[in-house]
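Sorry to interrupt, but I need a hand with the structure work. Could you write out one complete protein record for me, on any chain you like? Just paste the record in under my message, thanks.

. . .
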Amino acid sequence: MKSQKVNLVESVVAAVELTRRRFVGFDGNVCANGAKALGVVDADTAAGNVAPANVLGVILVEAGAAISAGVEVQSDASGKAITKAAGVGNGFAWDAATAAGDVIRIVRGI
């Protein structure tokens, strides 16, 4: 079982319904494809409520596709981690993902 070691958690007001283990933007929306994320939501959160966002540390995130360990990741349009292409990096994959839906550890803040 994978675990996380979070060094910084921030609160963000959810502009929309947010899903646990997906990237959230600075505006409280699901992080856009290739955009910089505030962090990774740590609990399913209804719109208008306050969501905990894991900002720094070893963080669990849902993969949007297969990912190799050690690569830089970015958000896809649904807030899932994918291998960085042309977007902004949001951490480095500690684990490999074999398919979308896998939960992997990423390292943010290095």
In short: The radius of gyration is 12 Å. The longest strand covers residues 50-62. Residues 34 and 87 are 4 Å apart (CA to CA). The chain has no helices and eight strands.
